[in-house]
Amino acid sequence: MPAIIARKTPVAAFISLMLASSAGFAQDTSADEGDNSVQEVVVTAQFREQNLQQTPIAITAITGDMLEQRSQTRIADVTAQSPNVLLQVNPAGGGNSMRAYIRGVGQGDQSPAVDPGVGIYVDDVYFASITGSIFELLDLERVEILRGPQGTLSGMNSLGGSVKLFSRKPDGTGGYVEATVGDFNRREVRASGDFTLVPDKLFARVSGLSRQRDGYVTRLDYACMHPDDPYVISGAIPRMNSGPDCKIGTLGGISLGAVRGSLRWIASDAVEVNVIADATSDKSETQPSVLREAGEIIPGLSLSYQGVPYDNRFVPYGPNRGDTVVNDPYVTYANFVNPAVTYTPIDPAGTPGASNGVFHAKPANELQAWGVSSTIDWTLSDRYSLKFITGYREYTTLSGQDNDGSPVAILSSLSDFSHDQVSQEIRLNGNALGSLLEYTVGGIYFDQRTTYATREFDPFVPQGPDPANHPIFDFIQRDTTNNETRAAFVHSIWHLTDRLNLAAGVRYTKQDKDYTFYRFNIDGVNPYQPLSDPANPLNGRVGRFEGSHVDYRVNLDYQWTPDVMTYIQFSTGFKGGGISPRPYFPEQIRGFGPEELEAYEFGFKTRWFQRRLQANGAVFYNDYLNYQAMPTQCVDENGEILPPPYGTPNLCGQYLNVANARVKGAELELELFPIDGLMIDAAYSYLDFVFGTPFIQTSSVIAGRSAPGLGKNKWSIGGQYEWNFANGSSIVPRIDVTHTPGYCGDLNCTPRSRNESYELVNARITYRSPEKDWNVALEVTNLTDELYDLNKLNTVYASSQPGAPRMWAISIRKNF
């Protein structure tokens, strides 16, 4: 019987390097004075440059150098050390997208009908979609994570907070080339170069990235691995591969390239223009997914229409394992091929017609994207300055899923998004009344167009007169969304004394959104009849949302000493409403209103012991109004459960405002330099999310319970020590430990949807040459080889997205 090759990779090389570095312990451990205390970080959260410690907002600021030391290469990686922040790649059904939550507020659904709850910004340009938002951290100056509603400072859909990426500005100096090889056949090259085109006037910077890595979940041919299974012997489960082993592919593989170019023109002492363009080509595999428990809405349905039962024989690991050969958490029998089991309906009743033939759902998670932005800073006088921010971005994606983890046709899809957006923002910064008042007045226009197309293949859905033998739930969706937003805002800072400051702001936002439904047969031309009843057609129906909102912020801060500041704040934010995007039946279509947040916060920012210790923290209480979610059962306009089949459990695609909630929490961030050369950073957060009485008659939302995807206690700690040698070289070992709390995976908090807590340990050791122009680094992620799940999918069956096992990599970098 074919054997599964073990994945355990020894870390002897890493341990050897650590021991080698210890040999230099008696060497010169002195460091520059500037490296032994907390460094100044400048942020722009309040529309102007301010010291992080004097900005009365809960902000985590991460420099480009720290991203490198922590081996963080994607935006989702920064969640580890950020309190009350969750940035996580979505499971396979979510395509090339990310779940983004801050302080319990966010969004994980990739549908363009549902707005994000955390604002993502690239060089101050808003990115309107969680699809395509898994940005590479390529040549960044810093990342700012603002926690709490940013309705006045950032604007719409920054209900939970915002994440802002800032590129390095070209100055004509520096550059690097870095090559990496590692586990799972990882091959990566990064490079950047900075050039002076016209001395003191015109500078350019070009950066690039290429990354390849094999997937860590193995796709095996079930028939090859189980030749004695009676359904294999009968031919009901055919063999899919013809090679010498049973492997047919992997999941989670990476293949991408990215490039970014920056142009900086200092036109005069008063005018500076920065233009940044980037492009990404990502041809990666779909996210890992493994089956944990099989199940069907109607037991035995697949045995009728395919001649194969969908049961736990396809579960290769865990308490429900029925696999007689394999016992491996990183294996799936998903083949992404669906036999000809569905039929084209010929009338609204679902009478089956011709067979739809074989359907191949490509195991892909692909993205083609590019964008350009320009920022013009114009100093009008000592008192006034203007900023113009213009942005355009577009992308297309292709993603496939076969989450049932088996050769049985249960659920699969092949989806593609096309998206383009344009935005224009203008800000006037000024001051008045001497040094008493600083203010910003501005406005923004934003326009977005998105098409969400997918082949939805769900033969398990009991639709039509004979679903057991002639499934018909198989169609093409091609929905379009248009979203136009206009906003105006005012922000002011009143310096009441040399220590006491009052910040106040207001923003008015007007949003117009429409969503058009299209459902076609697999020919892509003729309407899908069960959703095209002339008396209640879905095809061509347009849902609209129009609304306006006013957000406020009032903040009072007091600088007790140069190193101690406290603040109190009230702020609001909102996330737009829309129309439910995934009805199984026209009767399930309903609109939903915006979410709103009213937040109360107290925070402090302090430095102690000659700035060797920095301690920042906050406590907050939020009133969360009109929480948006998908209930298990669909309801009518009165909030009552629809009759069968429209209200069948687990067959609901509605988005609804289901309840209000109360959210409270606390956060603490520490940065410590106890002795020369040693740096320790730590973060802790607590979150308590409690639903109030539900608005609708469904058991999905229960008063007193938490929302899905949110844990209570999260923490991280990391440290690094720089051993400096007499010749000027140094060795820097670093270790990071992060704890991610467990959480419920759905509103019902069903046991098999619950994600358990886990701890991850990452380590890195870096050698720097005497001139600091060469670096050699060894990194190991998930050092203890922890087996954990990023998230779980619980429908009538259960699957999960396993996190990556232990991986090592070696990098060599040349700085110029």
Largest sheet: 22 strands, antiparallel, barrel
What radius of gyration results from the CA coordinates?
A: 27 Å
- Poorly predicted parts: 1-34
How much helical structure, as a percent, in the residues? under 10%
The backbone outline, from C-alpha atoms, is globular
Decide which structural class fits the backbone: mainly beta
Work out the helix count: 5
Number of strands: 46
Share of residues in strands? over 45%
Cα distance spanning the termini: 54 Å
On the 0 to 100 scale, the average pLDDT is 89
Structural overview:
The protein has about 800 residues and is mainly beta. It has five helices and 46 strands. A hairpin with a 3-residue loop joins strand 11 and strand 12. The longest helix is centred in the first third of the chain and has 11 residues, at about 10-20.
Quick synopsis:
By secondary structure, the chain is mostly beta strands. The chain has five helices and 46 strands.
List keywords for this structure.
5-stranded mixed beta sheet, 4% helix, 22-stranded antiparallel β-barrel, mainly beta, 46 strands, disordered N terminus, single chain, 816 residues, 5 helices
